[in-house]
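Q: Trace token order:
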Amino acid sequence: MIDFARVLESHLVEQMAADEIARQERMRAAWKAYHGDMPKPLKVAAGQPDDNVIVAKARTIVDASVAMMFGSGITFNVGEEGDGSPEDEYLSDVWKANKQPTWLAKLATNGAVCGHVFVKIVEPQPPRQPLPRLLVLDPANVRVRYQDDDIEQVYEYINTWNSIDERGKPVLHRQRTILQDNGLWLVVDEEARPSEYVQLWREVGRRVWPYQWPPMLDCQNLPLPNVYYGEPDLTPDVVALIHSLNFTLSNWARIIKWYANPRQYVTGVSSSAPLDVAADKTLMLPTGATLGLLQINSDLAGTAEFARRLEEAVHELTATPAIATGKLESVGALSGVALQVLYAPLTAKTEKKRGLYGDLLEEICKRVLDLGGYGYENDVDVTWPETTPQDAK
């Protein structure tokens, strides 16, 4: 007799594993596109020059989005703005110790590429570490478990990474942050050693986190309903478009290479002896012979237009206008209204991101203040810079 409950459970487990693998593959492909580590569209024969053109358009898009979101920098205020309270000073010291501008850039880059960001708060350890540390985690290393009927209710964070022990053997590490029935969070450290033939997780430590909130935080990069993980700037269709752009540019480069110095041909000559066609020589052709050049049959203008359309599609899908990446071709002098219109797609995307990242940053500040002895119930405001470039004139 078929045990339908067991079959259904097995199917759900397999589906969850397949979804996680697919998420990992999407992040890996997006990072490769960001770093320009993409496959070469054209085959290269041995001993021949490489005609492939690889354009890291993804990095330009992501960096422009990150710069737009944080601009000249953000500020955090506790209570009344600019009151210079001890809470304000402590929070400023913590962000300064964690190198705020670089930290924010790393956080937003992770989100734009992977679609989700994770942060871990590390308690102060005086005197070596007097202030809390804020760790930006690799989204590929973290997964969450949440309530089946409410995906916003997380009950476990699982952070996995690897290292090499003193014998040069690989060691897998896993830290699980688990919500208990009493409302406190349990932090369990585990490790596995594949070289020991049986890869079983072995517990190496545990402790109860002494606060009502967990040391892990996360948020979506762009809102994506009905699923837990957010949407990246580099979605699979954008990455595919960049591959198409590389293919078009590579073909264009190969055509130009072959026809930049076109082959000559001679008709009406019976001799097989080669002609001396050097620039400083006078070429003598027999009577009735003709000399010609192999002409290109490709439409280079059409190829250029197609490449331009592909690039426009990348900017359109990522809501990042070309002007935001520094491209000022055929723009001319722009008024403030014209700038707002051109930047409208990126501005709208940035406002979505600020809503999500803003909640995350405010929550980080509240937890940091709790660690510093100032309590959790603090009103923290994030002040963002202007999204559209400003010109007082």
Summary: The chain has a mean pLDDT of 87.
